Amino acid sequence: MSRRVVATGVGMVTPLGTGVQKNWEAACAGRSGIGPITKFDASPFSSQIAGEVTDFTSEDFMDKQQVRRFDIFIHYAIASARMALEESGLKINPKNASRVGCVTGTGLGGLATLERYHSILLEKGPKRISPFFIPGIIANMVPGQIAIEFGAKGPNLSIETACSASAHAVGEAFRMIREGISDAMITGGSEAVITPLALGGFCSMRALSTRNDDPEKASRPFELNRDGFVMGEGSGILILEELEHALERGAPIYGEVIGYGLSGDAYHVSAPEPEGEGAITCMQAALDYAGIRAEDIDYINAHGTSTKLNDLSENKAIKAVFKEHAYKVCISSTKSVTGHLLGGAGGIESIFTLLALKYGVIPPTANYETPDPECDLDYVPNEARELPIRIAMSNSYGFGGTNATLIFRAYHS
Question: Is 20 helix (H, G, I), strand (E, B) or coil?
Answer without folding.
Answer: helix
